[in-house]
Design a protein that fits this description.
This protein is α/β, with parallel strands linked by helices and 213 residues long. A 7-stranded mixed sheet has the order 1-3-4-2-5-6-7, sandwiched between helices. Bound molecules: guanosine-5'-diphosphate (GDP). Guanosine-5'-diphosphate binds next to helix 1.
Amino acid sequence: MSAILLTARFGTTVARWAQLPGGHLPELAFVGRSNAGKSTAINALCQRRRLAFASKTPGRTQALNFFELGRAGQPPSAFLVDTPGYGYAATPLAVRQDWDALAGRYLAEREALRGVVLVLDCRREVTDLDRSLLMFLRPDTPLMVLMAKADKLGASARELARRRILVTLNALERTEPLTLIVFSANTGLGLDTARMHIEGWLQTEPGDHAPTA
Ligand code: GDP
């Protein structure tokens, strides 16, 4: 297995559409409700302790954070993009509108986007907020859903949660199959499967997506 995720390092912070990198490197984005476990998942996938916490430093929280992938000392060959966590109940409307204007537009329009990873806390229902986020995605953008914190559930509760989430996700009108992975950064459950999937995305051309399970 190639290990491109293990090369991740902080690249740049994008606060406005015009600051997005030019060029045509493949990008994959991570999205999720605040506290879902997104930063922890990114750090686990990249085997880095604090990589994604760059996104939690003041001034970067409402921006897209670009991590570079590729051999050290070389120009990057792809980007991993961390989007701002969404959905604190108390989030002011203006902040939500900012999310829609940058992260939402990025998900809907960015041509370089090769795949989206949605991180869900497996103990929580899929909310209207999660659904409205998913509505930004083009129906043919490959989607991988990580059911994070699976170590907090026993086997049968996990299976129930998996089925519940699957029903919700299958109700979306997607043309690209989605991948649902039971995931725990704490135990490593689902880590290799998720990595393999992401690496597969980075090797495909737009419109030429590898079949997903
Ligand atoms: P984010 O806001 O989505 O980036 O969420 P964080 O990655 O900061 O995680 C939120 C909380 O969930 C933190 O206290 C993490 O330690 C905890 N957490 C994240 N992933 C896991 C996991 O796989 N298992 C357990 N037990 N806790 C987790």
